[in-house]
Specification:
alpha/beta, Rossmann fold, 5 helices
Length: about 160
Amino acid sequence: MAVRERVVPGAKTAPGPARPRIYVAHPMSSYKTAHARRLVERLGKLLPGAEVLDPEKLGWPTSDAWLDAWPDVLSGLAGFVLFAATDETVGLGCVLELTDALAAGVALAGLDASGLRRMDGFRLLPERSRTARAMARLVLGPQIAPASYVQTLANGGSIRP
């Protein structure tokens, strides 16, 4: 993981490494729900040393604004954690974000009520059922210990089977 310096005007001590930035992707259909609040809060507790970026809180007013900002967000990430809506689906935006994070070599993990999980992929919904907000079902593998994910962040790689 690249170490960024924190610059604090007037600070008399040497800057330390920045907290790793983790993007917690989730479908827009889960925004403003108890499900999303619980999982984002859980991730913060599982990874207390990380800066968790929740797209719902980033406040992009349109998908065009998200598309414009996403490359800058992605370039500063150490990790990418994805959770599905309560029906286990994710939308097209999550699929695109995950694809970009994978291509960028960002450490990946899934999240559900049991904790961090290995991400094993997606199962596309039947074509007649697909929408931009429900494109695929998230497939998660075995649990990942938070310490293992933190070590993966430090090594700059993805969780592999």
